[in-house]
């Protein structure tokens, strides 16, 4: 039996850092915008209980790959004797602040829960996902969402449709290094989010809440990120996502985003993605379960 599922990217449309907790983690408020662009995972049941991950282009040992770690965590939690071979087609730049590794882990939890018939709920899978990374729960939950805490308290929202141009400077930002830096701003005031549950956030709301507390520090540490954002800023309001390295801007249509992408300096990597409110991984799984009559 086999299964193919997408692992979408996310953008942080805003990111506020409220303070540092005694365990060293930071209290955040953010808006995770899911995209229709990402990696692809192929799952195949093995005849034994082994796990194997084929991930060309991913620069980590097999057992450190978040796909492998997610599969192992689910296998141990469910106590299943089934194994799997997983092929990861990587499109998302690693360490880009677009959640590639976290999304791969979330899609692995969702895919293997289905294939192995573990029967865990989305909430149970999201809790497991937290052990793998702060950004995993939102991808498991599968909805564009406001988030508080370290990303685990989610308030699902909808955003008006738009297209994002994402540029990926050729550098890798360590999330741990940014959060450990003494120069990081950590004192933003909290805003009230709970009343926004299931609301549509229009472009005025998004404009007035835009901003990323990591941006000044990251741009100081990585001048190439600042140069990329300043270039994009000539065309539309441009911002850092997560702890970087990617920067993005929103456009009303795909053709406007495409026009700017085509003007980028030679050698710069980038892509265009549409905003989505439901994760393409969930859409694909829902289709599977409806066609298999379950
Ligand atoms: C801040 C965000 C916003 O999306 O940045 P990006 O990773 O997307 O750039 C994420 O929540 C990151 O999530 P993720 O990349 O999964 O982080 P983790 O692996 O859990 O944590 C990496 C390290 O960053 C620090 N960390 C992370 C999240 C947080 N709220 N406070 C922290 O201090 C911790 O030192 C931790 O050891
Ligand atoms: N499947 C994977 N894809 C990408 N990176 C992975 C994966 N598994 C483990 N990693 C490690 O996680 C780090 C962060 O990856 P990623 O999630 O892409 O970044 P970010 O959190 O900035 O969006 C990578 O630099 C890499 O060392």
């Amino acid at each position: 039996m086999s299964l193919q599922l997408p692992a979408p990217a996310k953008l942080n449309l805003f990111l506020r850092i409220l303070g540092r907790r005694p365990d060293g983690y930071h209290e955040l408020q953010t808006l995770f915008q899911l995209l229709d662009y990402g990696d692809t995972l192929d799952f195949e049941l093995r005849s034994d209980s082994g796990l194997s991950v084929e991930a060309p282009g991913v620069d980590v040992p097999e057992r450190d790959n978040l796909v492998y770690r997610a599969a192992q965590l689910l296998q141990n939690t469910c106590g299943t004797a089934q194994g799997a071979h997983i092929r990861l087609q990587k499109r998302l730049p690693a360490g880009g602040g677009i959640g590639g590794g976290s999304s791969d882990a979330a899609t692995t939890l969702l895919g293997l829960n289905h294939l192995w018939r573990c029967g865990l709920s989305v909430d149970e899978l999201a809790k497991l996902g937290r052990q793998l990374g702060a950004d995993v729960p939102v991808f498991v939950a599968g909805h564009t969402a406001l988030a508080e805490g370290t990303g685990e308290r989610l308030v699902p929202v909808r955003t008006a449709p738009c297209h994002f141009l994402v540029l990926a400077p050729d550098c890798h930002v360590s999330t741990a290094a940014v959060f450990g830096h003494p120069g990081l701003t950590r004192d933003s005031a909290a805003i009230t989010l709970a009343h926004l549950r299931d609301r549509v956030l229009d472009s005025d709301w998004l404009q007035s809440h835009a901003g990323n507390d990591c941006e000044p520090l990251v741009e100081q540490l990585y001048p190439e990120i600042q140069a990329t954002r300043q270039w994009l800023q000539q065309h539309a309001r441009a911002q850092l996502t997560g702890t970087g390295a990617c920067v993005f801007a929103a456009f009303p249509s795909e053709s406007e985003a495409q026009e700017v992408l085509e003007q980028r300096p030679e050698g710069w990597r980038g892509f265009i993605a549409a905003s989505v409110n439901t994760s393409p991984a969930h859409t694909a799984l829902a289709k599977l379960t409806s066609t298999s009559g379950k």
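The chain has one domain: 1-294. The chain has ten helices and 13 strands.
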